[in-house]
Specification:
Strand content: under 5%
Oligomer: single chain
CATH topology of the largest domain: Four Helix Bundle (Hemerythrin (Met), subunit A)
CATH class of the largest domain: Mainly Alpha
Number of strands: 0
Number of helices: 12
CATH architecture of the largest domain: Up-down Bundle
Shape: flat
Order of helices and strands: HHHHHHHHHHHH
Distance between the termini: 16 Å
Largest sheet: none
Length: about 300
């Protein structure tokens, strides 16, 4: 199972080779120690790459567990020294990883400004800021900076392919989802305004925004109960809104699921196999020649 997790990092939805995309965007080094480091950090077909990914996954989960444990008052105080030591251990490890990623790509600024580059920076920055600004009066509580370390959980998305698949499906269906949300908002606005007219301010519906708030709470089947219709017509409207909510909530799930299913059927299984002439990646296992430059490919090797 662990091997399949890191293998997913090498390919994305629709058969896209994420290692190839990273190499083209950030610039893969041509030779030397930078190339060897790049293969370990950004690729997942080798044994070293798999071990690196698994070790980093374990560190991410452990660091998030430490942050959560540190927030428990009365429990963390008994182990403050251990928590502090673990926190700085993870901070140093993630800092070294961040520096290594910047040093092994030809375009470090492009990686630093990418989504995962920013996530890597946010994973270590709060600890250093809390160290540099312990008595800053501007900050109401330095723990705010420490709690920002929870964003390390976002680093998991770089190593588990299903996160990328879900993100790609959401991007591909964004127009449909936006149209769906606009329809939901129009229904909430119409029904909320109608209930404002029926119930009136004397029953808690003091304005149209308040009535729209009630409509959204009712459609999502949350039902806080802070505002409830009192008249028979109002209760009829509320019943219709609840029934609509049941059907409406299933629509975005179906849209995203259909997109993910379509991409899953169209998915191929590329590798991080690299041409030694043009350094292009993603060639199939049984390919004999490079699809980009036509050079003969070396024999495919996999640990």
């Amino acid at each position: 199972m662990a091997e399949s997790v890191v293998r997913e990092r090498a390919r994305g939805p629709g058969g896209r080779d994420w290692s190839l995309a990273d190499a083209q965007r950030f610039g893969k080094p041509e030779s030397g120690w930078r190339l060897r480091l790049y293969v370990v950090i950004f690729e997942a077909d080798t044994r070293a790459g798999k071990r690196f990914d698994l070790a980093l996954l374990a560190c991410i989960l452990a660091s998030v567990a430490v942050v959560i444990y540190d927030s428990v008052e009365g429990v963390s105080g008994d182990h403050a020294a251990i928590i502090e030591a673990l926190e700085w251990t993870f901070t140093i490890l993630f800092s070294l990883e961040y520096v290594a990623r910047l040093s092994c790509v030809r375009r470090p600024l492009r990686y630093a400004t990418s989504f995962f580059g920013v996530v890597d920076l946010v994973a270590v920055l709060p600890s250093y800021l809390a160290l540099l600004l312990p008595g800053a009066q501007v900050l109401l509580d330095v723990r705010i900076l420490r709690l920002l370390r929870i964003f390390r959980i976002l680093k998991l998305a770089a190593y588990v392919g299903e996160y990328r698949a879900l993100g790609t499906a959401l991007v591909a269906t964004r127009r449909k989802i936006l149209i769906f949300l606009s329809v939901v908002l129009m229904i909430a606005l119409l029904m909320g305004t109608l209930l404002y007219v029926v119930e009136g301010p004397e029953r808690g519906y003091t304005s149209i925004p308040v009535a729209v708030y009630w409509a959204i709470v009712t459609m999502t089947t949350v039902g806080y109960g802070d505002i409830t219709p009192q008249t028979d017509i109002g209760r009829l409207i509320a019943s219709i809104m609840m029934l609509l909510g049941w059907g409406i909530l299933a629509v975005p799930t179906g849209i995203v699921s259909a997109e993910m299913t379509a991409r899953r059927f169209a998915q191929q299984v590329p590798t991080t196999r690299t041409c030694h002439e043009c350094l292009s990646e993603g060639h199939e296992v049984n390919a004999r020649f490079c699809r980009d430059c036509g050079a003969k490919l070396p024999r495919y090797q996999r640990d």
